[in-house]
Each structure stands twice: as structure tokens, then as C-alpha cells.
Design goal:
Layout lengths: L7 E5 L3 H13 L3 E5 L2 H10 L2 E7 L7 H10 L6 E6 L3 H10 L3 E5 L3 H20 L5 E4 L2 E4 L4 E4 L2 E3 L3 H11 L6 E2 H9 L9 H13 L9 E4 L3 E4 L8
Parallel strand pairs: 1-2, 1-3, 3-4, 4-5
Antiparallel strand pairs: 6-7, 7-8, 8-9, 10-12, 11-12
Helix pairs in contact: 3-4, 4-8, 6-8
């Protein structure tokens, strides 16, 4: 049997009980977990290990999950992040996504749901790494290399998170095809869109900041009013 490379998950939570119970459950499910109680402890984990995904609690005393997420993204550390937020606090979820989180899960959570979220992200990462080899897509002044997970504009590399990469890949592979929010959620997260879930709109806004010159008049990633969004590789404002 071929040995599969073990992917490491960093679990960051200042509550030792939640941290230990969650780590034990995920370990029993076959994942390799490294724990950290703070942003500083996470920095050491990242320095000494090749981490595939971070599960990050939002409410921590010394440095909040939002600050940690923002700091990592500013430093071009684009490891996928699942943010653990307070249940029912939509503001924290939206801010977390804006800071660069790839997904969120409200506390208290079912460990099986967290496992499903982790598995879905890791599966997408593995699928992307094993398909579309050397696939390069050009639109406007941009070059999007699917295999290398890189985005360039006029030879300058643009930092792109895992969530932004997944979303851009969905659109560039379906040019001029209107996609509803439900379709985008299914393609990106593999789940149904909650009627109050604004995460797709937030992630669209993040992606637009990378590829649009004028956020008020997007030419590549356009809004299809009353339906969803459409990607126009020609950068045409006609809709």
C-alpha cells in the first residue's frame, strides 16, 4: 500500500478543555493535530512544521483570532483557516472572512461538523494539486496559474488566500456562465447556502479587491442582478 503524506492541522484555542477534547476527537478520526494556546504558540508551530490547515478560535485574550488571521495574511501566509466564532454573531463571521478566513463554524460546534469542514478543504487542496497540471488562464493583465496556485498582474505576484484561489478557480473554469450564490456555495464548500449566510458575498468582495480596478464598476467579476455573479474574462462591462 502506498504511504500517503500526513497533513498537519494546527488547532488554536486558549481553552485547554475544548482544545484537548477537540484534538483528541480529530486525532481519533485519523488526523494529525498540533495544538497551540495563543498566537505566539501558533507562530512556533508554523515555524517548525508544514501546516496544511489552521483551526482558529476567535475569542482569545492576548491576541484575538481576527488579529492572528489578519497578521498571517499580511505576511503572505495563505494556509487555509477555519474560524471558530461565537454562535449567532454574524458580524464576527463576516469580519473573519474579510480578514482572510476560508470558512467559519459557530461555537458550540459538533466535532463531526468541524471534521467535515476540515476534510472538505483538504480534499479540495489535494484535488487541485493532482489535476489541471500547468493550466494557465489569462484575463486582462492577469495570469492565473492553477497548478502553481499563483496570480500575477504584469509580472507582479499577487498574494492570494486558499479561499480566494478556490473561488477564482470556480469562475475562470466557467467563463460567461451565471452562477447563483447557492451554486457557488456548493462548488466551493460542498454545502447548502443558509438564507442568512453572507459569506459568499464577502468572499466575492475580497476577490474583487484583487482583480478589479474599480470596485464600483467591476468588469471581470460582475453581478448578475437577481441571480448571482458571472465571470467575463474579456473585462467587458456589458451584462
Amino acid at each position: 500500500m502506498t504511504e500517503k503524506k500526513q497533513q498537519l492541522i494546527a488547532l488554536v484555542d486558549d481553552d485547554p478543555r475544548i482544545r484537548d477534547l477537540t484534538a483528541k476527537y480529530l486525532t481519533n478520526q485519523g488526523l494529525q493535530i498540533l495544538t497551540a494556546e495563543s498566537g505566539k504558540a501558533l507562530d512556533l508551530v508554523l515555524k517548525n512544521n508544514d501546516i496544511s490547515l489552521i483551526v482558529l478560535d476567535l475569542m482569545m485574550p492576548d491576541e484575538t483570532g481576527l488579529n492572528i488571521c489578519q497578521r498571517l495574511r499580511v505576511n503572505n501566509i495563505n494556509i487555509p483557516i477555519i474560524m471558530l466564532t461565537a454562535k449567532g454573531d454574524e458580524v464576527d463571521r463576516i469580519v473573519g472572512l474579510e480578514m482572510g478566513a476560508d470558512d467559519y463554524l459557530p461555537k458550540p460546534f459538533n466535532p463531526r461538523e468541524l471534521l467535515a469542514r476540515i476534510t472538505a478543504i483538504l480534499r479540495r487542496q489535494n484535488t487541485i494539486e493532482n489535476t489541471n497540471k500547468n493550466k494557465v488562464i489569462k484575463f486582462g493583465a492577469f495570469i492565473f496559474n492553477v497548478d502553481q496556485r499563483s496570480l500575477y498582474k504584469k509580472d507582479v505576484e499577487i498574494s492570494i488566500t486558499a479561499g480566494e484561489y478556490d473561488l477564482l478557480k470556480i469562475f475562470v473554469e466557467r467563463p460567461m456562465q451565471p452562477l447563483s450564490r447557492d451554486q457557488i456555495m456548493q462548488l466551493s464548500k460542498g454545502k447548502e447556502l443558509d438564507v442568512f449566510d453572507r459569506s459568499i458575498d464577502v468572499q466575492i468582495s475580497r476577490l474583487r479587491r484583487l482583480i478589479e480596478d474599480d470596485l464600483n464598476k467591476p468588469v471581470f467579476l460582475q453581478t448578475k442582478w437577481g441571480f448571482g455573479y458571472i465571470f467575463n474574462p474579456d473585462g467587458d462591462t456589458a451584462n
